[in-house]
Structures are given as structure tokens and as C-alpha cells.
From TrEMBL:
<feature type="region of interest" description="Disordered">
    <location>
        <begin position="313"/>
        <end position="333"/>
    </location>
</feature>
<dbReference type="InterPro" id="IPR000210">
    <property type="entry name" value="BTB/POZ_dom"/>
</dbReference>
<dbReference type="InterPro" id="IPR011333">
    <property type="entry name" value="SKP1/BTB/POZ_sf"/>
</dbReference>
<protein>
    <recommendedName>
        <fullName>BTB domain-containing protein</fullName>
    </recommendedName>
</protein>
<feature type="domain" description="BTB">
    <location>
        <begin position="352"/>
        <end position="419"/>
    </location>
</feature>
<dbReference type="Pfam" id="PF00651">
    <property type="entry name" value="BTB"/>
</dbReference>
């Protein structure tokens, strides 16, 4: 059963996003995080390429609690959550400064990914836990991708004593220079490629992953060779780092019309180069209770100042009457609000730059508003679609009333007189066009109005 963080109600959830995992040569450590609702215990995580494990450690030496038993779930997924790579669940007792390990079985596959998301869920075993607290953190491994085509001149008649050199340039001023040197072996007649970084001692560490392929006349890649290389303070200046395999000269010459251009061989070089720098940050600390968790979907820097429909919390009795508060903090209220200004029903149509059509109804709209609120519309308008060229987009899957209400929400975040049927249709629209705030509000409405008469 796959781990579903959206269903958690108590305990502590640590979400660790790791970017450029492939640039890890051994160990990646997370930022230290504190679980306020678990005796204020402090924790850290790490993943190891060489040892193939996930490492969870309690590091709070000053905590009063000597030993605590936890239910622990560790889940590793791709960053877009499209694939679950690992899931482990255990009941573990953690003492101060004690580590626990979760073994990977897919280490090579995991460390070839670009980005990973690691969930670590902790709750006290067989105890009443406080409401869920969520922490989200980011670890970014520096990595630069370099692509270029290396022309190996006169490869048809290449001799063993004729090394070929190519510099894989960077546009970054402070980036390490990477030099490729190719030599034809005497016995096997394989074209071996060596990798060197002349100024590697100026950096803490240089980690390189490279792929070199023969670039055929039709643009396809053949005879690819791959390798990874580390340069650090322990690397000797005389060390020769080369790809484990080479490119067979005879194989290339057999199909010289496809692989050679006037006797020259073109090699596609695709490299990731990391200087070992790692950046950490804690991106979110969320203490919201479940009934308020939808607020986390909104943004404090939103372009709209329209009041959000947040459930009211009972007011605390301060001893002052409402009238006293009103008189002591009296303002002159504006007669018009931003909602009045941008209400879709009363927009000045002369400024609209695209038309949405459903059935016999048309809706002039502003492209910038659609792109701002929906990544699906943004992708649509960013591509060379026929609809965008004539400024007319057909919306076949929404009826006119649903589309009108959908657009009203995009402009005003307003859901007027919401009923069950229109809520289900708006929920469908929100999912299709990736409007998270609408999806959350419709979901909350449908959940709160679920009954025997409308359940499927």
C-alpha cells in the first residue's frame, strides 16, 4: 500500500526534496529538523550511494526524553510523485544520538534520477499524538550540464601515436575546465577517452558523469560509452581517469558512410559536472490543523487581494464589546473593492485578447489571467497551437454555465451560491486545468455536503 501523506492527521512529517541526485558521489545529508510535537526531538537524514541506505538519526543530546518508541514510515518517490521507489514501515525505539537505517534495493536506479522526494513520517507508538506538523526542506547539489560535439579529425586513418584533445567549455567564469583526450589503443584498436580537470585542486571536489556517443549522419547516437569520475585532494596529479570502454574503430569504419564525414568522426559529448557544493534550506513549517490545511494551498504573495473564504474561528472573549472595538478602530471603508473591479461579469471586453467557446456561447477573456491561474492554459498559449493563433479556444468538456463559473473563480476566487451539481463540475474543471485552490474548495464543499442521496 503506497504511503499517502494527505491522509495523515497527527505526528510529524518531514518532506525532503533532493535536487540533482545524480551528482552525489557518496553521501547526501539533510538539514537538521525539529519535531516540536514529539518532545522537541531533533533529527537528520542522509542517503548513501555507496552503502545503499537511508539513514535516520536522532541528534538531540539535550532532550529530556531518553528513549522514545516511534512508528516510522520512510517513502522515496520521484519528485513528481509519478513513481514510488521505496517504502519502509517500522516500529523503532530511538535513544539520543542513535541512528537507524533503511536499506535501498534499487540504489543504482535511484541515484540515476534527477530529483527525489523523501518522506519521513514519525509518530509516538501507541500514544495519543498531537495534530500533524509538517516540515519541507530542500537540498540542492550543484551541477552544470555541458553539451558539445567533438570532431575527431582524420579518424579513418587515426594512428595509435596521435592523441586527440577536446576542451569541454563552460560559460561560467568560475567553473572548472574539463579536458577530453582520445587515444587509439595498439592491440584492440579501441578509441579510449581520458578525462582530466587541470585545476581540480582549486575545488573541494569535482564529480563528473559523462556520456560520449558517435553522432551518425541521420542524427542518431551510436556506440555510447559512459563513465563517472572524482577529482579531490586525494587524487594524484598523475592519475589517468578514462571511460571503462572505448569506441571500436573497425565498427565505425564498416559503416563509414553513416558515421564519418570526410574521414572525421563526430562525437556527441553530454556531461554533468559538479564542484561538490551543496545548498540546504527549510522551505516550510506548517502547524495548521486538518480543517485549515487548505490554507497552505494559497499564497501570501498572491496577485489578488480578495478576501479568502476561511472558516471562522470562535472569537476569544476579551471583555470588550464589539461596539467598543468598532469605535476604537474605526476606518472609512472603501465603496468599491478589487473584486468589484475584476468581476468577470463586468469586465470591459475591449481589453480581452482571447475567446473561449463552448457550444454556442463565447467568453472573451484575458490570456494573462488564464496563464497566471492555470498552468494548463499557460502551456497551451506558450505552444504553437492552432487555437492560439486565431485567438479562439474551444472548451468542449465544460458546459456554458460551468465555464462561466470557472472563469468567475479564476478572476475573483469567488464561488457564488455553490450547489452539489455545479461543485462536481467545477471540481472536474479544477483537476483538468490544475487550479489547486478551486480543487481544494470544491473538495471541502463536497466532503461537507456528502449524504446518502448524492453518494455514488
Amino acid at each position: 500500500m503506497e504511503f499517502d501523506p494527505s491522509k495523515l492527521t497527527d505526528g510529524f512529517l518531514f518532506i525532503w526534496n533532493v535536487e540533482n541526485v545524480y551528482a552525489c558521489d557518496d553521501l547526501i545529508n539533510s538539514p537538521t529538523f525539529i519535531a516540536p510535537n514529539l518532545e522537541k526531538t531533533e533529527w537528520s537524514m542522509s542517503i548513501s550511494r555507496e552503502s545503499s541506505f537511508v539513514h535516520l538519526k536522532r541528534i538531540d543530546n539535550n532532550s529530556v526524553a531518553e528513549a522514545i518508541e516511534f512508528d516510522v514510515i520512510v517513502s522515496v518517490v520521484l519528485s513528481d510523485e509519478s513513481k514510488n521507489l521505496l517504502e519502509k514501515e517500522n516500529k523503532l525505539k530511538f535513544r539520543k544520538d542513535v541512528s537507524k537505517f533503511f536499506v535501498f534495493f534499487l540504489n543504482q536506479l535511484i541515484f540515476e534520477e534527477d530529483n527525489l522526494k523523501i518522506y519521513c513520517y514519525l509518530r509516538k507508538s501507541e500514544e495519543l499524538n498531537e495534530s500533524l506538523i509538517r516540515c519541507s526542506a530542500l537540498t540542492h547539489l550543484q551541477s552544470e550540464r555541458r553539451n558539445d560535439v567533438w570532431k575527431v579529425q582524420n579518424f579513418r586513418h587515426l594512428m595509435t601515436n596521435d592523441p586527440k584533445t577536446f576542451i569541454l567549455e563552460s560559460t561560467g567564469k568560475e567553473s572548472p575546465q574539463t579536458v577530453l583526450t582520445g587515444r587509439l589503443s595498439k592491440r584492440s584498436k579501441l578509441f579510449h577517452v581520458e578525462v582530466s580537470v587541470p585545476d581540480f585542486l582549486c575545488y573541494k571536489k569535482i564529480f563528473i558523469i559523462g556520456k560520449i556517443s558517435v553522432l551518425a549522419a541521420d542524427g542518431s547516437l551510436k556506440y555510447s560509452i559512459k563513465g563517472s569520475f572524482i577529482f579531490n585532494n586525494n587524487t594524484s596529479l598523475n592519475t589517468v581517469s578514462k571511460f571503462p570502454t572505448g569506441i571500436c574503430q573497425a565498427s565505425v569504419l564498416q559503416l563509414s558512410d553513416e558515421y564519418l564525414t570526410h574521414g572525421d568522426l563526430l562525437l556527441m559529448c553530454d556531461f554533468f559536472i559538479s564542484n561538490g557544493e551543496i545548498y540546504h534550506e527549510v522551505r516550510e513549517s506548517c502547524y495548521l490543523r486538518n480543517k485549515h490545511k487548505f490554507i497552505a494551498e494559497s499564497h501570501i504573495l498572491a496577485h489578488s487581494m480578495i478576501e479568502e473564504n476561511i472558516p471562522r474561528v470562535p472569537e476569544e472573549d476579551t471583555g470588550e464589546s464589539t461596539q467598543d472595538l468598532k469605535s476604537s478602530h474605526e476606518f472609512e471603508q472603501p465603496t468599491e473593492t478589487l473584486e468589484d473591479d475584476v468581476n468577470y461579469e463586468y469586465l470591459d471586453k475591449k481589453y480581452c485578447d482571447v475567446i473561449l467557446t463552448t457550444g454556442n456561447n463565447t467568453f472573451p477573456v484575458h490570456k494573462c489571467i488564464l496563464c497566471l491561474k492555470s498552468p494548463v492554459f499557460k502551456k497551451m498559449f506558450d505552444t504553437d497551437m492552432k487555437e492560439t493563433s486565431n485567438k479562439n479556444v474551444d472548451i468542449d468538456d465544460l458546459d456554458s454555465n460551468t465555464l462561466r463559473r470557472f472563469l468567475l473563480f479564476l478572476y475573483t476566487e469567488n464561488l457564488e451560491n455553490l450547489q452539489w451539481e455545479i461543485a462536481t463540475k467545477l471540481f472536474y474543471a479544477a483537476v483538468k486545468y490544475h487550479v489547486t485552490s478551486l480543487k481544494v474548495k470544491c473538495s471541502c464543499f463536497l466532503e461537507s455536503h456528502l449524504s446518502m442521496s448524492n453518494v455514488c
